[in-house]
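Item description
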Amino acid sequence: MANRMCHEIELDGAPVYFVDDINSDEGESDPEMYSIQGRMFPADANVAISLPQDSAEIQRCLNHHRVFKMVLRSNYWGPVEQVLAPIPGQLERKRVLDLVTAEGSWVQEMAQQFPHVDFLSIDNVPLTAHIPRPNIEFEVYDLFNGIVAPDESFDMIHIRQSTAHIRSPKELIQELHRVLKPGGLLLFVDTQLDIFDAKDPKYPAGEKYPGLDRGLQIVRTSLAQQGVNPYLWRDLPGLLGPQSELWRNGPETNRGKRQVGFRTVRTKAHIFPTTEWPRDTYKKAMGRLAGDTLKGMWRSMEVPFQMYGMDPEVANGIIQGAIGDLERPGTKPSFKMHTIFAFKV
């Protein structure tokens, strides 16, 4: 591996290093991806370093999708069916923008449920091949530099579990506003990077799960070092409203319209188990799947932790500490998922 340039950051008095410039194992420049210890990462400087994006992650992404669906008991939240319902006499088909594609489960299932709607799913890297459907179009490009679509193109935009990729969330929000039709629906969902305990789920329970707390702290700090807001789920409602700084002197669309924000912003927190502690059969299965998915995520963090400049043994210790908390008997570890929907003014 080529020499790496790092920035040092502090976490509880211990140094953590973030890699600023990395070449591939082969010493060659790849326009889209580079390889570190056999794991693939986007070469796009606008995409923060988090989990690998390669074929080994497909099953984890699929399981993640299943967890989301089990928690929400649906692929969506908010008035989606009303927004996507066909209008009698209207020939123009409804359109949905999906960010990001990942393994593609969400857009595939939605396209089957709403065959009268056209879906455009975009990702910054091609994770896997997708089953072609007449009402889905897949695109791969640097979407964080702008969405290649005309103003007011979509009736709904869905953005899920993408916070770790977004270095300029304010610019992306303005871009989403630009391509959404007036009255269009924005859906956002992300998992909070804090550990909770079901006995007192109101506040994070880091002191009860020190391994998970330590690992999540490092992830949050390293993402923040890269310009990512790990608490975008918390800050997004304030950014969406018309009173937000984004819209006071907001940019104009290509049609010369002044952007004025979103209305009817609704948020909801969903706590879910990450082990089999619930008695309820459905929630027990949810906890088993969520726990297995989280363990896979932590194992995939071995290379990113080293990319942050961490010693391999230290990285492994943090990973094992997090997994150990998930496997410790007699506890009720839980995570929170935050859903948001809003309408464009």
